[in-house]
Design brief:
With 407 residues, the chain is of the alpha+beta class. It folds into two domains: 1-12 and 118-291 and 303-321, DD-peptidase/beta-lactamase superfamily (Beta-lactamase); 42-105 and 380-407, no CATH class. It has helices spanning 70-78, 80-83, 129-142, 174-178, 199-206, 210-215, 231-244, 249-258, 286-297, 310-316, 393-406, and strands at residues 9-13, 89-94, 97-103, 122-124, 265-269, 282-285, 301-302, 305-306, 321-322, 333-338, 343-349, 352-361, 365-370, 375-380. The protein has an eight-stranded antiparallel beta sheet with strand order 3-2-14-13-12-11-10-9, with helices on both faces. It has a four-stranded antiparallel beta sheet with strand order 1-5-6-4. A two-stranded antiparallel ribbon has the order 7-8. β13 (365-370) and β14 (375-380) form a beta hairpin. The longest helix has 14 residues, at 129-142. The two termini are 38 Å apart.
């Protein structure tokens, strides 16, 4: 599938940061284990080592010191080529420490060209950007930019009137937008993104001001009643912050989020009006992507500093919209609902259930948080044209290897 190319992008680098990346060594096959070894060795190839401390705010640790099986992590990395070929990079935090970070990909992809990215560890997040849009709303409430989630949504946008006016539009709230229950006639999942008839692709190709054009759509339901996943809804969140905050959206992000979280290298492409696209447009390194899972696991604190209120964290990962459909039942991670632009669900592993929440993006970009295990996993992937067997790979990787390494 190909998204329309953005009209322009804005490259934002506060300081030169060269992420430490480790390219996966080629697997050379399974030699016999030395007779003196206490247990069989994994196939020759990847050998675990503690991630480097590159000054990005992460405390690093040896996985064994955080009660994770190094043998299982080595088995995971040695299985990448055959079992998980869609993985570009992976990072894992356990008990608040970075215990694994590996970049697997050796080539850039077409979406790197959107922001002239040349860093193999920097990656497009696609819809995982929406979860950061939600975080921005929480910060905006904390800073007094917004009052609360019951606030009238259209009152937060800079437009005087809308096409297809319906009195129900005036009742749309901030919470309705966060939970994708705005009531507008919208379906970007059917036809799928691979189809030229997909509503979102046609919308992006024909419109200029995505926030205005989205709320120009006719109403189909009462607000707050029907779930309709909508990328332009998340774009409009950025528009509301841009319109109401005392500083520009991108500056708001650096002052209140990226800066305090030791994130100095961010790439973002913009809408045709120059607005950062919070629906699909953020690029981060894998280690920085992982930080947001740790932030949420840490109830809104990063390295002891309060970034967003604990109340907002709890509300964000609560399943405000119960969801259940047939297909995810075949996944290792099963969806249960949708919060404030975060997905909720659970894993079943050896008869035990582990609740989790996740940021997810097109092409199998996944940030998974499993609170009971004090575990955060970030995976970037190139599966932009994913087959059915590929969309399950990241969840299977987490269940069969990462969770297994803890238990």
């Amino acid at each position: 599938m190909k998204f329309p190319k953005p009209v322009k992008y804005r490259r934002l680098v506060m300081a030169c940061l060269v992420p430490v990346t480790t390219i996966l060594a080629a697997c050379s096959g399974g030699g016999a284990a030395p007779q003196t070894a206490p247990e069989p060795l994994p196939p020759v190839g990847y050998v675990y080592s503690e991630p480097a401390d590159n000054g990005d705010g992460w405390a690093t640790a040896d996985a064994a010191a955080e009660a994770m099986s190094i043998a299982t992590l080595e088995a995971l990395m040695n299985a990448m080529a055959d079992e998980f070929p869609i993985v570009d990079s992976i990072a894992i935090a356990r008990r608040g420490k970075l215990v694994l970070h590996e970049t697997v990909r050796e080539t850039l992809n077409e979406f790197d060209g959107w922001v002239s990215n040349a860093d193999l560890d920097m990656h497009v997040m696609f819809s995982a950007s929406k979860s950061l849009a939600s975080l921005a709303v929480g910060v905006a409430i904390d800073e007094g930019v917004f009052s609360d989630v019951s606030q009238s949504w259209l009152a937060l946008l800079p437009y005087e009137d809308y096409a297809n006016w319906d009195e129900r539009k005036a009742t749309i709230t901030l919470e309705d937008v966060l939970t994708m229950r705005h009531g507008l006639a919208w379906n970007e999942w059917d036809p799928p993104y691979s189809s030229t008839d997909n509503q979102m692709l046609r919308f992006y190709a024909s419109e200029t001001d995505y926030s205005k054009a989205f709320f120009d759509q006719p109403m189909a339901h009462d607000p707050g009643t029907q779930f309709a996943y909508s990328t332009p809804a998340s774009v409009s969140i950025g528009q509301a912050i841009e319109h109401n905050a005392p500083i520009a959206l991108i500056d708001f992000g650096f002052v209140h989020v990226f800066g305090p979280m030791d994130i100095t290298n961010v790439e973002v492409f913009t809408t045709p009006t120059g607005l950062p696209d919070l629906g699909r447009g953020l690029f981060l390194t894998t280690r920085d992507f992982l930080k947001f899972g740790q932030l949420y696991l840490g109830s809104g604190r990063w390295n002891g500093e309060r970034i967003v209120s604990e109340t907002w964290i709890d509300a964000s990962v609560h399943a405000h919209v119960p969801l259940g459909w047939t297909e995810p039942e075949d996944f290792d991670w099963q969806v249960t609902g949708y919060g404030y632009q975060w997905w909720t669900g659970f894993f079943e592993h050896d008869g035990e259930r582990f609740d989790a929440f996740a940021a997810r993006g097109h092409g199998e970009q996944v940030l998974m948080v499993i609170p009971e295990l004090e575990l955060v996993v970030a995976v970037f992937s190139p599966a932009f044209e994913a087959r059915d067997d590929e969309v399950t790979q990241v969840f299977r990787l987490i269940n069969e290897y990462v969770i297994e390494a803890v238990l």
